[in-house]
Amino acid sequence: MFGYGSLMWNPGFAFVERSEALIYGYRRSLCVRSWVHRGTQQNPGLVLGLDRGGSCRGMAFRIAGDDWEEVIAYLRARELVTNVYLERQVPLQLQGGQTVQGVAYVVDRAHTQYAGSLDTVAAARIVHAAEGQSGPNDAYVFNTLAHLKQMGIRDHWLEDVVDEVERLRAA
């Protein structure tokens, strides 16, 4: 199982081991319009999706065979609520260089909640102005970046979004 956002530090399921992993052909992006947790339909926020292009550092979780059905059911309930994500089998390069097959949830570009590829200024404006049932959108983004930094994972684009949100807050 591949995690690129909150799944990395809050998986919510049992696993045998976890390892830093790299996925090619996808990148972490604030490309999903949030209509409930971090925004509303009238003023959507942005949450992370795994979008096409580039690469993404995240976490791979090895699941025990006996736990697989329970874990996949949990993840489908967590990730496929509005079907904005697609469940895909993808190659994951583990920290030691070994390549394994894993499951990842990638954004469905045809879904109405797909926000597309936004530049940092456009993403920051949306993040700065949105709030949903789970709180302000900027708190989600700041928390995500803090966890990534704690894990030793740099995401320059997300860092630039946070810098721009901070500029908007100060203005």
Structural overview:
With 171 residues, this protein is an alpha+beta fold. It has one domain: Gamma-glutamyl cyclotransferase-like (Hypothetical upf0131 protein ytfp, Roll). Helix content is 30%, strand content 36%. It has four helices and seven strands; from the N terminus they run βββαββαββαα. A hairpin with a 4-residue loop joins β4 and β5. The model has no long low-confidence stretch (mean pLDDT 95).
SSE layout and pairing:
Layout: E1 2-3, E2 17-34, E3 45-62, H1 68-79, E4 85-94, E5 99-107, H2 120-129, E6 131-132, E7 135-136, H3 137-150, H4 156-170
Antiparallel strand pairs: 1-3, 2-3, 2-4, 4-5, 6-7
Give the number of helices: 4
Output the CATH homologous superfamily: Gamma-glutamyl cyclotransferase-like
C-alpha end-to-end distance = 41 Å
User: In percent terms, what proportion of residues is strand?
Assistant: 35-45%
Helicity range: 25-40%
Report the CATH C-level class.
Alpha Beta
Largest sheet: 5 strands, antiparallel
Order of helices and strands: EEEHEEHEEHH
- Low-confidence parts, pLDDT < 50 over ≥5 residues? none
Radius of gyration: 16 Å
